[in-house]
Each structure stands twice: as C-alpha cells, then as structure tokens.
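If your schedule permits, I should be very grateful for your opinion on a structural question. I have a record of one protein: its chain in single-letter code and its fold written as discrete structure tokens. Would you kindly read the sequence against the tokens and tell me how you understand this chain to fold? Thank you for your consideration; the sequence and its tokens are set out here.


***
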Amino acid sequence: MNLEPYKIDVPQEALDDLRDRLRRTRFFDDLDNEEEYYGISTAYLKPLVEYWADGFDWRAQEQRLNTYDQYKVEIDGTPVHFYHVRGKGPNPVPLAVHSGWPWSSGFSLPLVGPLTDPAAHGGDPADSFDLVIPDLPGFAWSTPVGRGDLNYWKIADIMHKLMTEVLGYDKYAAAGSDYGALVTSALGHKYADSIIGLHYGQDLPPGQFANERFWDLTDGAKIPEDATPELRAGLENLVSTYVSHVAVHMLDASTLTHGLNDSPIGMLAWLLRRWKKWSDKRGDFAANFPRDFILAEATAFWVNQAIGSSIRMYRNAVRYPWVPSHDRRPVVEPPAGFTFLLGDAYPPGVNTVEERIAAFENGPTRDSFNVINVNAHMKGGHFVHYENPEAFAGDLRETFRKLR
C-alpha cells in the first residue's frame, strides 16, 4: 500500500478554545487534601493548569512528536495513527509496540533509538527492529472512531491487518504493556502463525474482565486475616492504586466522559491521577514526568476528544467478550519474554528482582504463555516503555536474540 506521510498539526482554533476553557477554570477549595489523600489536589493542579493556559508551547511538542515518520490509515472503518521507523541493521525484525491506558504512542517513543539503532546505544546492529508504534484505535491520534464496539481483541484484528495488509509483513513481532498487553496476547492467540515472538511489560493473557465481578480487580477478595503487615500494606496499596478507575470505567463510562470531554481540567485530573499513582513511587515524579510531557499527552487526548473512546475499551471487553479461536495450550503460543519493573503496585509484597520473577513463575498467568525470557528491574513503575526504556529494550532484544 502506498502510504501518505502524516504530520500532527492541531488547528489553532482548537488550541485557542482549550486556552480559553483553562483560563475560566472554576477551582474548588479542596480542604485538607495537601497530601492528596482524596485524589489530585487543587494545590498541585492549579499551577499546572495555569501553565497549560499561558506557558505551555504545544507547537514545540508537535515538532518533537513529528520527529519520526508517521502515517494514518483507515482499517475496518477505524483510523489508525502509527509511527513506522526502519531499523538500522542487517535484518531488522518488524515489531509492533502497543501502549496501554491512558498512554498514547508518545509513551513508547523512548524505545525508538534503542530498538531501531542498537549500535548507537551500545548494542549490536544485528538486534535491530523495524518499529511500528500505533496509537490504539480510539486513543489520541487514532480518532475519531466511527464505531462504539472497540476492545482489545477487536483492536488485535486491526493491528494484524496493519502489519500484514497495510505494511506487508508476512511475519512480525509484537510487544505491549497494560491494555496493550491484552492486544498483544489476543494477537498471539489468534494469529500465532504470523507471530515471530512476543514481549510484555505486564503478564496479561486474553480473557481479562471475564469474571462475574468484572468491575472489581480483586473479584471480591478480602485481605487474609493472617496477612503479614507488609502484605496487608501491599494489598491496600494495590486497591488504592488500580481499583477506582476500573470500577468507574466499567460501570459509568459515558457518565464520566460527559464531564471529562467538556472540561480540560477534569480530564487532566483523571489522567494525571493515573500517571502519578501508577508510576514508580521511589522516583521523582516531577523529574521523570516533566510538565511539558504531561501536558503534551493531555493535549493529545483533549484535541482529539479521545477520552471517551479510550475509556469505553474497558466495558467493551465485557459487552463483547473474548472467545478463544482454538483450545491449544498455552493459550498464547508464540515464544514470549517479559520485563517486570518493581515500582509497580502489582504484585503486592514483592521487593526484590528474585521475588518478582518467582511471583510470575509461580503465579496464575505463567501457564498462559510460552515463556522463554523473564527479567525484572528495580527502576520504573507501570509505564514500562517510558519509565525504563533501556531495560525494556534490552530485555526485548534478548528475547528475540533467541528467535532470529
């Protein structure tokens, strides 16, 4: 297919409207929330919103995002925006990297250099990849969607067509984290004959959200009475970190979206709570997530009105449940590698690299995958591609060194 290059170029009137809305923000008093016990505080949010209105340079961020070759096509009635960066090496492996929620393709751009040009990053040119980094349909620049039924396994069908029909690869590799890990697993299950191998930032097999209490990540489980203080603290932290957004996205997706789609500060607060809460608590959030990066991501969701279509992915995993294509085992057949970062809240009670690997090897998801490589690292939290791209890229190269 002859692809036309795409450049991000937000109309000035959309930026002017955003600035006007931000300047008219009605902040609330937010009493007794200095430590963000109740969520993102006004004290934290107000200066960020004021900077978004009168200091933030979106055009500079556009220039950064337009550094790499990118395209936008329509597949199955759905727009798909993606970066396509060719590898510098003797035999680059085509690799699709899928991000999660609330990530855009921008969270995976730190992987471009180490994966496409490993020699320039202290590696072997034989480990290079042709990198494809899409925005998942309904996220950021892969909008506006013309259908309301998208979820991870339907996106997997679209991604397979992107790699094979649009880009012409007979065989390809896939990687993913968070919701993108579910897309990757759905690909590995249904299209195993086309998959060279897989690499993950989280161990999520297909079939997620299939339990009766689909809105409840704990599935109704209580903390065991004999839990150690450390395990109890870890379980409480897991709940406070991840449970709220799943419950609301599952039970009230559109109700929430009406507010977030109309209020940039409301949307920013909802996204920012995830970025702050899910990232590595041992790190410096302000240093690791600079305000220009945060606001670039928020702007991408705002100007594309992508917040609602991205949120709906959760409930659609229930309304349109995943159905296996076959009964072979493991359910995800291609060889798979894993990168786990210990700054994530999951699994609770894990403090060392050895414990994290053991938790996976002895855990409930292990048998779902054809595991060939497992690594864990102290640095980074839930946003694996962005928070520790060096580790993810290094582990991924190690995984595919076994498969080339």
Remarks:
- The chain has a mean pLDDT of 96.
- The CA atoms of residues 78 and 374 lie 35 Å apart.
- The first helix runs from residue 12 to 23.
- Residues 12-402 form a domain with the Rossmann fold fold (CATH 3.40.50.1820).
